[in-house]
Amino acid sequence: MRYAIVALIIVIIVPTIASATRTPASFSASRSLLVASSSPGNAYSAGLSVVRTASVAGDLSVFGGSTVTAAPVLGDELLLAGSIHSRARVGGDLRAVGGSISIEDPIAGDLVAFGYSVNDAGRVGGSVFIVAANVTITNGASGPVTIYGNNISLAGDFANNVDIVASGRVALAASTTIAGKLSYQAPEQTSIPESVVIAGGVEYTSASYLPDAGTSRLLAVISIGFFLFVRILGALILAGLLAGLFPRLAEAVVERASTARTSRILLTMLLGFAVFVVTPVLFLLLALTFVGIGLAALLFIAYSLIAILSISYAGILLGSLFSRRYIKRETVLWHDGMLGMLALSLIALLPYVGTLIVLLLTTFTAGALLLIFFHFAFPQESDTSELL
After folding, report:
1. Burial of 226 (0-12, 13-18, 19+ CB in 10 A)
2. Do 202 and 267 sit in the same domain of this protein?
3. Of 166, 188, 206, which residue sits at a domain end?
4. Distance, CA of 37 to CA of 126 (rounded, Å)
5. Do 249 and 363 belong to one domain?
């Protein structure tokens, strides 16, 4: 496919450059261009909307948003536009690159088209090379036909071989005749009507573009691995930011874990567990009443925030305890949060045990954060605010 596109570009550009120096040329450009005077030599036009109603004795080259050629061109045509309509005979070759390409009259030479949809209703006297998502040829061709596309439909008399590579459906209309050989590659074999005549026989190659079971498993593993990598990376960045921007808060959480008695730690974990269990029930009950919908929305936002902070500070707690135990450093630094979150993410991958450890750490940090926020909002001692 890649080589076909490169060949298409060469076929489009080279003949135009070679012929530009041999004949006199006329140039026209405008936002909305209507050319009603004939050209004795080559003609070049450009604009958002280009309509040509006069004949061209040489070659025609048009660049625009929408292009309509409604007069004969004795030489070659090069059309580059979003929408292309060729409504007159072309005496040479037609090369078209666009989104929608429609050809209504015969082409004496070759047809090379590259676009989203190509509809050829004018018989081509030479060869046909098309790369498009949807291709329809309704009047056959005299030369060999090569098509790369998705859905391809053929009708008319084809005097030579027809080669097709399709990722979707291939259809042949009734009474279609192919003097040469039909070779097509598609996911499913097409149903050929009885009235279709193919003198050279049919060669079908099955081409499934869906991955097999092994490839699907490999893609699933890669997707899961990428998702885990992105999730862990995001958690590391968030934990590092929280530890670096709010070290006093992180130190307060670590202090509660390292100096409190076992019973106090259990009560803090119980508080965090109660918040995680009771709060969803509470905002669901509030959402049942019209008055409580707004309060339920605010409570849901607060619940989501405390859940994110609890998981992040669980990683910060783990990294800070490690630094206190082995590095003998009391202050919390940003890389403590990243290191702890990395360890917590790896622990979470362990079946059953990892989930239990993460749950215990998260419920403790949730309870500790709620106690710290409560004492900050309702201070009872003069130095309570210094925790933050």
Report:
1. exposed
2. no
3. 206
4. 29
5. yes
Find the domain containing 127 and state its range.
Answer: 2-206
What mean pLDDT is predicted for residues 132-156?
A: 94
Q: What span, in angstroms and rounded, lies between the C-alpha atoms of 91 and 106?
A: 9
Both 32 and 88 in a single domain? Answer: yes
- For 303-323, how does the pLDDT look when each residue is reduced to its tens digit (9 = 90+)? 889 889 999 999 999 888 888
Go through 303-339 and write b for each residue having 16 or more CB atoms within 10 A of its CB, e for each that does not: beebeebbbbbbbbbbbbeebbeeeeeeebbbebbbb
Percentages of the chain per state (helix, strand, coil), in multiples of 5: 45, 30, 30
- 79 touches 62 (CB < 8 A): yes
State how many domains the chain has.
2
Query: Which of the listed residues 187, 206, 225 is the one where a domain comes to its end?
Result: 206
Query: Can you tell me the mean pLDDT for 71-82?
Result: 93
Q: Give residue-wise pLDDT tens across range 208-263.
A: 666 666 667 777 888 888 888 888 888 888 888 888 888 888 888 888 888 778 88
Q: Coil, strand, or helix at residue 76?
A: coil
Residue 353 tokens read as 């045990």
- pTM (2 decimals)? 0.55
For every residue of 201-236, which 3-state class applies, written as one string? CEEEEECCCCCCHHHHHHHHHHHHHHHHHHHHHHHH
Mean pLDDT score of the chain = 85
200 and 218 in a single domain? The answer is no
C-alpha to C-alpha distance for 388 and 374, rounded to whole angstroms: 12
Q: Quick one: how far is CA 216 from the chain centroid?
A: 19
Structure tokens belonging to residue 351: 């079946």
